[in-house]
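dumping this here so i dont lose it
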C-alpha cells in the first residue's frame, strides 16, 4: 500500500526539514511568558533549537541530496493508513530522516551527532491534506 499524500504535502514537508539543515529558524514557539514559567521545557527547546541552528554548515549539494532521498523515503513509506505517517526526531531522527541524512553525506560519526543535526523532540504529521509540525515545548504549527 502506498501512502496517499499529495505531491504538495511531500514538497512542504521535505522543504521544511531541508530548511532546518540550512540553519533557518524552524519553529515559532509562540509561547507566552506565563507558559514558559509553567513549563521549563519550552525554554530548553528554544535554547536547543538556537544552538543546533548555529552549528549547521551544509552545502547546497548536501541539501539537494537530502531532499531527493527524503522525498523517495516518504514515497516508499507504507503506513497502515495516512494518519500513521509522520516524520519525527525524538533524541534521534526516525528512519526516513536518518537514512536521508546518511545518503546525503551529512557527517555523523556517532549516535550523538544524529541528535543535533535536526531539531530534537519534533513531530511532523500529515492529515486532512495538510502538514503540521510541533513538539516538546512547541505548539503545532500548520505548514499547509
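and the seq i came up w/
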Amino acid at each position: 500500500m502506498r501512502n496517499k499524500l499529495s505531491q504538495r504535502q511531500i514538497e512542504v514537508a521535505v522543504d521544511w526539514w531541508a530548511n532546518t539543515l540550512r540553519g533557518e529558524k524552524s519553529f515559532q514557539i509562540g509561547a507566552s511568558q506565563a507558559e514558559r514559567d509553567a513549563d521549563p521545557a519550552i525554554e530548553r527547546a528554544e535554547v536547543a533549537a538556537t544552538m543546533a541552528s548555529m552549528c549547521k554548515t551544509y552545502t547546497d549539494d548536501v541539501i539537494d541530496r537530502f531532499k531527493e532521498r527524503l522525498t523517495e523515503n516518504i514515497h516508499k513509506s507504507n503506513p497502515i493508513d495516512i494518519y500513521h505517517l509522520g516524520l519525527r526526531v525524538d533524541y534521534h531522527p526516525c528512519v526516513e530522516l536518518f537514512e536521508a541524512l546518511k545518503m546525503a553525506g551529512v557527517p555523523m560519526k556517532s549516535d550523538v551527532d544524529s541528535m543535533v543535526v535536526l531539531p530534537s523532540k519534533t513531530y511532523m504529521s500529515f492529515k486532512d491534506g495538510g502538514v503540521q509540525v510541533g513538539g516538546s515545548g512547541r505548539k503545532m504549527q500548520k505548514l499547509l
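The helical segments are 7-21, 33-38, 40-54, 60-76, 95-104, 111-117.
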